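Hello,

I think I submitted the fe (ii) ion job twice by accident. Can you confirm which output corresponds to this input? Input:
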Amino acid sequence: MSLRILHFSDVHLPLPPGAWRSPEALHPKRIAARLNFILRRGNKYTESLQKLNGLNEFLRREPVDYLLYTGDTLNFGLVREFMDAAPRVAETLTLARQGALAVPGNHDLYTGASPAHYERHFGPHSASDLPEAATSTGYPIVRWMGPEAAAIAINSSRPNFNFWNSSGHVPAAELEALGQLLARPEIANRRHVFLLTHYPFDEAGFFHGLRNARALLKTLQGHKNLILLHGHNHRAYTYFLPNSPVPLYCAGSLSKRDAESFWLFDLFGGVLNPRRGVWRNARFTLVE
Ligand SMILES: [Fe+2]
Ligand SMILES: [Fe+2]
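Support: Only one job matched these inputs. Its output is below.
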C-alpha cells in the first residue's frame, strides 16, 4: 500500500482591506505587534497568497492523499482575517484526495477572543475520527489514514497577552489523553503515526518555544512508530530525536520570501520517503 502525505505550515496570509478598522485593533498586543510587523516582518510575506495558490497548483499537478497543516494562517487573529483566510485554507485542504487535519498557530489564537473565532471558522476542518479520545479542549484529534497510518493533532498554541511572548503550552489533560491514545492497539499497531502540532518539540527560547516540551517528549517515549511534525519556526529542517528512531520535520513557512517550503512524504509499506517542496521559478517543485 502506498500513501502520499503533504505537510505545510505558517502561511501568514496578508491582511484583507479594512482589517484594522475594528475596535479589536485597539487591543494593546495588536498595537505593539503592528509596529513590529511593519518594521520587521510584513514585507517577507506580501506574496503569501501567491504561494498558497502555488501550493494549490502543485496539489493539482501532484495529487496527495492527505494534507496536514500546522497553523499560523493569520497574523493578528482579527475577525476580518478569519473571514478572508478560512475559505482560502479550506479550499487548499479539500484538494487532498482523502482528507486533511489542521491545528492552530499562535497567530491564529492571538487574543482571548481568538479561540472562539478559530472554532467558528476552522472547526469544520477539525472533526476527529475518534472523538471519544478528545479532552474538553477538543484535542487530541485523530485522522485515520488507511490501515497502516494515522495522524494525531494536539494543540500547543494559546493566547498570550504580550506580543513579545509567543511561547506555547500543551494542556496537561491533552498530554494525558495523548499518552492513553498512543497506547491504544489501533494506534500502537500502525506503522506510521504522524503527530502534529504548531510548536517545535523543544524548549528553545523561553518566549518563543514550547514551555512543557520535556513533558511532551516524555509522553512520546517508547513509541517508535511516530513521525513528529510542526511549524512556528520559519525555516524547514529535520532531525531524529536523540537516541531514538523517531524523526521530526519542521515545515518552515509556505510563504516566507526566499524560504518557501513544505514536506512531502511517500509511504511504501514500512518505508517513509520524505522530500522537500521549494519555490523555484514561480512554482513549487520537489528536491531530494
Ligand atoms: Fe508563524
Ligand atoms: Fe507561530
